[in-house]
Amino acid sequence: MSDILREIGMIARALDSISNIEFKEYDLTKGQYLYIVRICEHPGIIQEKLAEMIKVDRTTAARAIKKLELHGFIEKKADENNKKIKKIYPTVKGESIYPFIKRENDHSNHMALKGFTETEAETLYYLLQRVRGNIDKEWEFVKKGNKRKY
Amino acid sequence: MSDILREIGMIARALDSISNIEFKEYDLTKGQYLYIVRICEHPGIIQEKLAEMIKVDRTTAARAIKKLELHGFIEKKADENNKKIKKIYPTVKGESIYPFIKRENDHSNHMALKGFTETEAETLYYLLQRVRGNIDKEWEFVKKGNKRKY
DNA sequence: CGATTTTTGTTGTATTTGCAACAAAATGCA
DNA sequence: TGCATTTTGTTGCAAATACAACAAAAATCG
After folding, report:
1. Structure confidence by residue, pLDDT tens digits, B28-62
2. Distance CA A82 to C1' C3 in A
3. How far apart are CA A117 and CA B60, in angstroms?
């Protein structure tokens, strides 16, 4: 069987590595760009959902967000109806770096798809979305402590 | 532009997370499975190449390998002609868990491609390989301290 | 309503990860 | 050949990551 996952792993690590190096310029440490884009695109999101979205452990997200707050990129607001949750919003500072993150990501996307026709790029996107749908379920299953059989 | 990279990042983190949880059963800590498969498939490889292959920092690979050696999964051997390099080989113990890692990876691949036709799976593999080729260059460029322009 | 379960968030601890800086062997080149 | 550069490997730090265990609010359900 063709090892799709190995390719995906290599690509992901390479790109994450590049992004982390490039975002140091904006005082973002490893992985923080992931949270900022999601928070800007989903203002009011709670950290539990953010972790699910990014596919990272809940506690990792909690600490990353705490640090982003400490550095003034985002802020947490209490919810009126639900005392348990804390909604997360970007600050002006957070909003202001969003375009730079997008620009970098766009550039990487562009480089990644060099030599691709429009159709090929769309096909890839479509297939990847389906893979993610499949994997989403597996991730939640295993993350919740269940054991896969194979 | 469709954000291929975000999809790839999510898929990769989810899968890595699953693998790490599942391989604890074999006393492998985070990421170690990556090295073992490559070493079994390329016995005699040096750690510099391993890092390149996996797309991880040189020092990260160095430490992961040191730990694998310490736990008896692999061994380093000096080269006769080149005093600088250390060739890495799996031990019997290392070889013996390779099939389990493969089996888990195969299962994840299978789950990831659920609902895919043979052709779709092949197309995806083909497109991903091209993406990786593109990204490989970028990674080396940035990792070596160069600055991308965009 | 009340008890149980789920959701959401936190902290303690161990581990991996990666940058910087160094060293030594190998290679390239004038 | 001799000197500069590249390759390969290491260690010191600082930081992210994740598992375990806990707490409290909310939701479910008899």
Report:
1. 999 999 999 999 999 999 999 999 999 999 999 99
2. 21
3. 36
The DSSP symbol for A116 reads -
Considering the domain architecture, whether residues A33 and A98 belong to the same structural domain is answered as: yes
Interchain contact A64–B (C-beta under 8 A) = no
Residues B20 and B80 in one domain: yes
Domain that holds residue B127: 114-150
Q: Would the pTM count as exceeding 0.85?
A: yes
**A128 and A58 both lie in a single domain:** no
3-state secondary structure A4-52: HHHHHHHHHHHHHHHHHHHHHHHCCCCCHHHHHHHHHHCCCECHHHHHH
CATH number at residue B16: 1.10.10.10
> B7, A128: Cβ pair inside 8 Å?
yes
Residue A3 contacts B, CB cutoff 8 Å: yes
Total of domains in chain A: 2
Q: What is the pLDDT of residues B65-85, one digit of tens each?
A: 999 999 999 999 999 999 999
